[in-house]
Automatic annotation (TrEMBL):
Transmembrane feature ranges: none
Protein's name in the database: Uncharacterized protein
Recorded GO CC terms: extracellular space
Gene3D superfamilies, sorted: Gamma Fibrinogen, chain A, domain 1
InterPro entries found in the cross-reference section: Fibrinogen-like_C, Fibrinogen_a/b/g_C_1, Fibrinogen_a/b/g_C_dom, Fibrinogen_C-term_domain
Organism, scientific name: Aedes aegypti
């Protein structure tokens, strides 16, 4: 009996345990399946998010690329504009000063053989062709001083332009007609050899005293001749004779020594001029308000080497 009861209990317990095991296993399977579904759903969600991020990244990359292209174009345009602008400035300066320019396009009725032919009497820039077959260039015409009609070949008034230059620069000219400049020895030769000219020096010191010196005639040779002063007439004026001493002299720069001194006068006195041994005038020297032998000066002006505030050298047909 007891054995039967025990066996029965064992069978019941076994049945219950087996039933519980199956229930537990079923529950675990259900839980595992549910968890797997959650994981898959989460992965799918992450995949969608990743795809979305990739799309956003692609769009952002395109935007950045477009922006860079626009920026590059803008930069290129700005750089191009700067180059064009700079080129125009340089071209204008070359057009104004340098001999080796291309001829500017201009109405021939507004081209003159010299400033002396300009009809309106206004000081400014004009197109000049001294000889029929020569190149056209611009010149600064002074139309008020001493009857006008002067071609300005040198102008200094504030020290903004460096005049301690080499032979080539003095040959071709430098600076701007709107500021300080040297007109160029080639042009000075062309003009003074095509017809008889006079030369005038218009000088102002730092006390605002104005004095002039004029010589008639005046002419210089070509480069092969060293731009020698071939003719220089008698002095008239108020500044004193600071140029006759240089009569017959060739031009000297720091890299081409044509003077009669033991060393290069241009190097020693910081200029470029028709030095003798060395000077009584030195108008392409250092712009300075001081007494020094390297100053832009005209010795007879103040009986010394006092720097001048302004120098303007002009030539005119006679």
């Amino acid at each position: 009996m007891h054995i039967s009861i025990v066996l029965w209990l064992v069978l019941v317990i076994s049945s219950v345990i087996h039933s519980e095991d199956r229930t537990s296993h079923s529950t675990n399977e259900n839980n595992f399946g549910f968890g797997l579904e959650l994981i898959l759903a989460k992965l799918e969600s992450l995949e969608l998010e990743i795809m979305s991020l990739k799309e956003q990244n692609r769009n952002l990359s395109e935007l950045v690329s477009d922006a860079l292209k626009i920026s590059d174009k803008s930069c290129v345009q700005v750089a191009t504009n700067e180059i064009v602008s700079t080129g125009e400035i340089v071209a204008e300066q070359n057009n104004v000063i340098r001999v080796d320019q291309n001829e500017p396009e201009i109405d021939e009725s507004h081209v003159y053989s010299s400033c002396n032919e300009v009809p309106d009497g206004k000081t400014g820039k004009y197109a000049i062709r001294p000889v029929k077959d020569s190149k056209l260039f611009y010149a600064y015409c002074e139309m008020q001083i001493n009857g006008g009609g002067w071609t300005v070949i040198q102008k200094r008034f504030n020290g903004s332009e460096n005049f301690y230059r080499n032979w080539t620069d003095y040959k071709t000219g430098f600076g701007s007609l709107d500021g300080e400049f040297w007109f160029g020895l080639d042009r000075i030769h062309l003009m003074t050899s095509s017809q008889t000219h006079e030369i005038m020096f218009h000088l102002i010191d730092f006390k605002r005293t104005v004095k002039t010196a004029k010589y008639n005639p005046f002419s210089i040779g070509n480069e092969r001749e060293g731009y020698v002063i071939k003719s220089l007439g008698a002095y008239t004026g108020s500044a004193g004779d600071g140029f006759s001493y240089h009569r017959g002299m060739k031009f000297t720069t720091y890299d081409v020594d044509n003077d009669k001194f033991t060393t290069n006068c241009a190097k020693k006195y910081y200029g470029a001029w028709w030095y003798h041994a060395c000077y009584k005038s030195n108008l392409n020297a250092w712009y300075i308000n001081a007494r020094t032998d390297q100053a832009m000066c005209w010795n007879p002006f103040n009986m010394g080497n006092d720097g001048l505030m302004s120098s303007m050298i002009m030539i005119r047909p006679v």
